[in-house]
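Help: read this over?
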Amino acid sequence: MTLSPSSSSTTTSLTSSNASRHIQLITQTEEFNSAILTQYLMPHLMQSKEDGSITTTTPNSPGGTPKPRPPLNRINSKRDTLSYHTISIFGPQSSGKSTLLNRLFATRFDEMNSEQYSQCTLGIFLAITDVYTTNQPNTPEKIFVLDVEGTDSPERQRHGDEGQSFEKRVSLFALAVSEVLLVNVWAKDINRYQASNYSLLKTVFEMNLQLFYQETNQSKTMLLFVLRDYDGSIGKDKMHEQVQKHVQLIWEGCSKPKGKEKVQVLDLFDVKIEFLPHKVFQPEKFETSVEDMRGRLFDKKSDEFIFKSLYHKKVPMAGFEVYTRNIWKQILENRDLNIPAQKEILARFRCNEISDEIMTEFEAKLKQWHNKSSNENQIIPEFGNESKTFVDGLISLFEDQAALYVPQVVEESANQLREKMKKDLYTIFLSQMTIVRRNFENQFRTKVQSTIDQKSDKLLGDFSGTLSTLNRETTSEFKKEAAKFSFPDSNWDMEAILRDLSSSIQQMTLEFREKQLEAQLHKQRHQLATKVDQYLQANRKQGLLYNPKDTFWMELRNHLDEIVHETQDEIDSVLDTYDCTDDEKEEFLQQIKSHTIQHARKVVSDYAKFIPSHMMKVFESQFPPTNLANSTEKLLMEHFNMARDESLQLLDIFFKFRHNDEDVVVSIDFPPYEEGKRTAIQYPEDLAEDDLLISEDDAKNIFVDFSHEIQLKLVHAKHERERQRSSMTSVPWWIYVALLVLGWNELMYVIRSPWILLLLLVGGVFFGWAKIKTTVEDYMVNGSNPSIRFALTMVCENLPPGWIQMPGKPATPSAEKLKPE
């Protein structure tokens, strides 16, 4: 239905949305149709864009420049707007209230007809009308029209007080939700208290004063009195004066709460009066008046425009259902209505709804970040700024959609939403920091190892200083990198993360320190071991091992203490770079000293393994048989005993490791040599096995074998002495020449005589064998080549007994006396 006023400068078009129907908001049994209202409002709330994204203009953007928001495909954008108005009507039953609303707003409420003279409206009905004006031809404003059940009806009067309570409840509800309240009364009843609903109006005034009045930001309500069937018998000015007077009297008779005694009626209400002629007797004039009234009321340029901003309840359209439902619930429960509190409740409800929708989109993005961070161990570059941009976009969208609600509640909810998202982001931040921390730990390890590898000896000259520098560099770089992942202006705990990094670096530092100290220990051990080797085995000629004396152990002990002491200052200087304590230095020095002693023991032990050979060399150097051939028997034995004692001294020196024996000298008791007897040594008692370089059994065997060898050499020396003596009495060579010259004829005779020649050949063989036998026996005892001696021994053992005298066997039966007793 489109109605054009005949006397209005502004053309107004009214189109009833879903005009074929309206809804019953509150039933006659006091039930609130919440589901029906929600469904009825939905077409007016929903708006969409093809891409699902939302672009809004915020007050914070310079010049109103639109700020793009992140695409929120899963968020339904509701037309949450204040671009609607609410008007309601109350008055006596059958006073034409529904008819007036239908004419003014193109609604289709049920009207009374000539065949039905009873209640048409039960409870409260709602219809929504779109208003188009020439000022806004493409942007309609919606008007929520509430048709309230009439008062003073016989049906309600039959229920007594309960019926009157229902009338007060619906009237109070209409007042709470409406910007304009149409008071529909007969012009002739304007001076009647009950007929004009003044008693009900008084209740409305009292409740309005209690519920709505605020000292600041006070909203007002338009009381539009529509005087029906006005016949002009009383002037309009007089009627207007009467209405104003009655309103003031009613206000003065109201009970005012404490602290609000001085509040005036005009602080809460604006009063306006419209006159309408009789609909039945003056139908054309009635319609014209209604059209004229509609044109003036909806013209924003007109002073008579009724939907002014100061009347708006500031309840967004999306919250209309929640707001009205809660208002009616509290009215039914007979609780004092606190309209500002109801607005806060509505604001919180809507903010929670919007927050849930925002969080759905946020959690989808959060899941993507979580998968990258936790499942794939990926770094999210610039996570802090990226997350802040995303959160800021969501908060801006939240504020845009909740902008029409109580600002304090919106701000509080926005802060709570931001903190909630920041709390969820903190888990991603911690996961990212774990990855970043591990990367920097690996970088620190790599830098330290690279610095070590650049050194030729793989040792850092200033360990503590170098690692402290690398630690500071790594920590500083980590802080800069971590700032890229932290949500700006957040109070996220970075100290705990830095402590974790510091703890890891400290642990790695201890590991490197341990390895470096081990390498330093190895280096010092090697240096001291080299000095020990040089001292004991210098070119195998000048070393202490190859010139042993009875002071061997004292000299070795003093040398070891000396080289360790010389190294101590160097060790202390090196250990200072590792921040070692005095106890650590002492332990380090003891390890070096212990290793040096053990290395010296190993060298001496290796030498002791060949002690029989060393003893024989000493004996042969002191008792050369060829040099003693011309000596006397006494002198020969003196040299023999001297060489024997010096050789046995080696066994006495090296049978036990005596580095710690400073006061007690432990020696082997060697018996003196007695020709023809085999004697045994006396080993010291109560010796620790760990200190022995040569066991007791090995020492006894070495002594027995050595005694046997030197006994043979003594026999050989005596034979050599006898041979030298016999060679001194042999025939000179010139005698053989003289015999040859003088006995030539005799020689020719012998050669020509076979028997004589045979006899000479046999004699030559006998004397030749004797010479060969003596030479072989002598070489098997004193020969310089062990291989030849061994080969001759093997051959001679296979000869018949008696042909060759073997070493260690008696030459004649008289040798039996050499057997041990």
